[in-house]
Write a structure and sequence with these properties.
two-stranded antiparallel ribbon, 71% helix
Length: 116
């Protein structure tokens, strides 16, 4: 093996090693991102996104909606509105907010909780 081909082989090994390390770091960062999103979402649910604690009824709105989505994966917004006894427009707005915070996602014509 020439010194040039040995150098190339060494370089390729190092490059593969760096790629594996980068993959591991990306996985760690993705997990950290999900953890931070859960923390932010919890804080928003608790405070209503305003930095102060709301009354018990106000903070229960997203919780009851999340529970309904968990219990009925793929459920449509109109059915969710009936299940949680709130106006369709309000449920639709709450689902959009929960989707932005990566708590729920569209699945076909319905909604399901995201795995965090």
């Amino acid at each position: 093996m020439s010194s040039e081909s040995a150098g190339k082989a060494r370089f390729e090994r190092e490059l593969r090693k760096l790629r594996r390390e980068a993959e591991v770091e990306l996985t760690r960062l993705d997990e950290e991102r999900r953890r931070l999103r859960r923390l932010i979402s919890f804080a928003d649910d608790y405070t209503g996104g305003r930095g102060r604690k709301l009354g018990a009824g106000a903070s229960q709105a997203p919780i009851s909606l999340l529970r309904a989505v968990r219990e009925h994966p793929g459920v449509r917004a109109s059915m969710l509105a009936r299940l949680v006894k709130r106006p369709f427009e309000q449920v639709e707005a709450e689902l959009a907010d929960l989707a932005r915070r990566e708590r729920v996602e569209r699945t076909g014509l319905g909604w399901r909780r995201m795995e965090n």
